[in-house]
Design brief:
Helix content is 47%, strand content 11%. The protein has 234 residues and is α/β, with parallel strands linked by helices. The chain has a single domain, classed as Uracil-DNA Glycosylase, subunit E (3-Layer(aba) Sandwich). Strand 5 and strand 6 form a beta hairpin. Helix 1 crosses helix 3 and helix 3 packs antiparallel against helix 6. The radius of gyration is 17 Å and the shape is globular. It starts with a helix and ends in a 9-residue tail after the last helix.
C-alpha cells in the first residue's frame, strides 16, 4: 500500500505545477444524481488533495498576518460538499481553535445550514485569508492577493455546485468586483460553473436583526438550487 505521506507529497507537487503553469482544477459534478453515484475513491482523492494543499500552505509567512496569528485556519468540512461557505477571515475564537466559524457567529451559521436541510458536516467552510487580521479588520488587498489563491484552489478541488460568500470582502474577492454587498446579494453569479450567492455575514446579523430576512431569502434560493427541503424547528 502506498504511504499516505508520499501520496500527499506527490499531490502537493502536482498542485504546485498546476498553479505555476495555469492549469485549472478538477472536473465538476454534472448533477446531484451523478454525485450520488460517484465512487468512494473520488471523495478520498479530494480529501488527499486538500491535505496536500494544506501542506503546500505550510507554516505560511507570505504576508504580515502571520505575525499576530495563533493558528492557521485552513478550512473544515466535507471535501465533496455540494455547498461551500466562504468568509473573509478568522476571528479571535477561530484563531485560537483553528476551526472556521465558531462562537456566536458560528452558531448562527449552523442554524442557517440546518434550516435549509443540511448539517454542518455536509458542507465545507473556509475563509479568503487563513490568518486573523488584527482587531478583526477587513483583509487588505495584499493579504487577499497572497492567501486568496489557496481558497480558490479549495473551491477547485471540492468543486461545489453552490458557493455562499459571507460578507462584503469575501463576495468582492470571489466575484472580482468593488460593488457593495447590498447590490450583489439576492441573485446568483456564475463563477467557473459554480453558482455564487453573496449574502450578509453572520456576525453582521448579530448586530442587525433587520438583515436576517434578506439572508433567509438568499438561503432559500440556495436551498432550491440544491433541491433541498426546508427543516422545521429542531
Amino acid at each position: 500500500m502506498d504511504d499516505p505521506l508520499d501520496i500527499a507529497n506527490d499531490l502537493a507537487q502536482r498542485i504546485r505545477w498546476e498553479v505555476e503553469n495555469g492549469v485549472s482544477g478538477y472536473e465538476r459534478k454534472k448533477s446531484p444524481a451523478a454525485a450520488a453515484d460517484a465512487p468512494a475513491e473520488q471523495t478520498i482523492d479530494k480529501k488527499a488533495a486538500l491535505a496536500a494543499l494544506r501542506q503546500e500552505l505550510g507554516d505560511c509567512e507570505r504576508c504580515g498576518l502571520h505575525k499576530g496569528r495563533t493558528k492557521i485556519v485552513f478550512g473544515a468540512g466535507n471535501p465533496s460538499a455540494r455547498l461551500v461557505f466562504v468568509g473573509e477571515g478568522p476571528g479571535q475564537q477561530e484563531d485560537e481553535s483553528g476551526i472556521p466559524f465558531v462562537g456566536r457567529a458560528g452558531e448562527l451559521l449552523n442554524k442557517i445550514i440546518n434550516a435549509i436541510g443540511l448539517d454542518r458536516d455536509d458542507v465545507y467552510i473556509c475563509n479568503v485569508v487563513k490568518c486573523r487580521p488584527p482587531n478583526n479588520r477587513d483583509p487588505l488587498p495584499e493579504e487577499t492577493g497572497m492567501c486568496g489563491p489557496f481558497m480558490k484552489r479549495q473551491l477547485e478541488i471540492i468543486s461545489p455546485e453552490v458557493v455562499v460568500c459571507l460578507g462584503r470582502p469575501s463576495a468582492q474577492y470571489v466575484l472580482d468586483t468593488s460593488r457593495p454587498i447590498g447590490k450583489l446579494r439576492g441573485h446568483f453569479h456564475d463563477v467557473d460553473g459554480m453558482k455564487v450567492m453573496p449574502t450578509f455575514h453572520p456576525a453582521y446579523l448579530l448586530r442587525n436583526e433587520s438583515a436576517k430576512r434578506p439572508v433567509w431569502e438568499d438561503m432559500k434560493m440556495v436551498r432550491d438550487a440544491l433541491g433541498l427541503r426546508e427543516r422545521g424547528p429542531r
